[in-house]
Amino acid sequence: MSDTNKKSYSRRTFIRNVTSGMIGTSVALGSIKEARAVPDKKQDADGRSANTEKLTFILNGRSVQVRIAPETTLADLLRNHFELTGTKIVCNHGECGGCTVVVDKKAVYSCQMLALDVEGKHVITIEGLLNGEDLHPVQQAFVDKDGLQCGFCTPGQIMAAYALLLENPNPDRQAVIDGMSGNICRCSAYPKIVDSVLEASRRMKA
Fold this sequence. Notes:
Layout: H1 3-8, H2 11-24, E1 53-59, E2 62-68, H3 74-81, E3 100-103, E4 106-109, E5 122-124, H4 137-144, H5 154-167, H6 173-179, H7 190-205
Parallel strand pairs: 1-5
Antiparallel strand pairs: 1-2, 3-4, 3-5
């Protein structure tokens, strides 16, 4: 790489490119992939229930229907059936917030919610915030304010922030801290995360 190219490729450019890809995942270039139903067999390899049930709900603005085992979590459904891998399973115990999605305008830990509990409800994932290839104001604010480091917790942070701003469009700094307290950042980027949420609040009102 020439010296000219090195100078023009800044840290912010790198983070913007990486984050935009991470936040949007592959769904930015296409629609939600068609659900793949769990095979209606006697028993799977892990000895789970042989029965499946029909589930119909609104996923990122689109009505979807799938047959699933009753014990399937919402996180597993989103990742394994719809391939919406922006929802991260980190602790899998409802303690870190990495799997946060929005159900009927409320932030939930999808690893702790049975998929069947979203029957007839509206579910929004990190991919669902996109407008085509354009980032949502909350996503863009996290990019512009460097509200991430490794980025692994970022989708959950953004979804928690989105739900917070739906409930309280005008939070002060303490309200953001309190509202985001259920989402852990192992890189300790909390000051930048708070700055990002406050910036998103300003942009969503613009």
